Amino acid sequence: MMKYTVFSGMMIGPRSRQEDCIMDGTTVCQTDRLMSQKDMDADQFLACVCDGLGGHAHGDAASRFVCEEISSLFPQTRPDPPGVRQMLAKIQESAQRMVPENSGTTVAGLMIRGRQGVVFNAGDSRVYRILPTGMTRLSHDHSLVQGLVDNSFIHQDTAAAHPLKNIVEFGIGPLFTPGWDHLQIHIHEEKPASGAGYLICSDGLNDILTDPELHHLLMPDPIENGQKLFAAAQKKGLTDNTSFIIVKVQ
What we know:
This protein is α+β, with helices and mostly antiparallel strands. The protein has a single domain (about 1-250), classed as Phosphatase 2c, domain 1. The chain has helices at about 60-75, 80-100, 145-150, 155-160, 205, 210-220, 225-235, and strands spanning about 1-10, 20-25, 30, 35-40, 45-50, 105-115, 115-120, 125-130, 135, 185-190, 195-200, 240-250. Strand 8 (about 125-130) and strand 9 form a beta hairpin.
């Protein structure tokens, strides 16, 4: 059994409704404002952030559906790439039947069983490994701008300021059904060591704070500085629903 400490934050920002939804290790949550910290002893661990697509119908319903389905299917899911892909493909099939038409959500998460872990994402919600030397992004954005970076049309340093940076090309839900023919869930295998730290967030956070700024705010102890990050995001000026989960493996 491993020990985890988890700090979670949610802010509605300037939106009229909360379209983010999180699973913080024990609880699925979708609320306008949240700051919480918990310690857990567990044989297996799951944390994820879903960001319902703004500008489309029922983004809040899509994000909550996917978060709840991942939470439900997690206990019987193998924490390896085939297991995670199978789980998310099953959720996509269910979403096509049960989630309102023209809705969709991003998803980014961390799944651990024993010392075997998997990071996964579809869309532009992110997972970072937090190290004393910096932030390492373990997820990979499925976005129009990231595609331009991947194909060397623009440089990564200019992506954050690109006017089309919020166009998401892949996720889960009826909106993304065509994408499932040619795009894939991004999966990174991870072996979390004692003391390892992770940040999972919706794009509301990394749109207003750069990776170096996030690292500076979280050091030297990411959990202890969770409230500091929450306050800094508010002070910077929220532009979207903003949610994050900080995980420390003991």
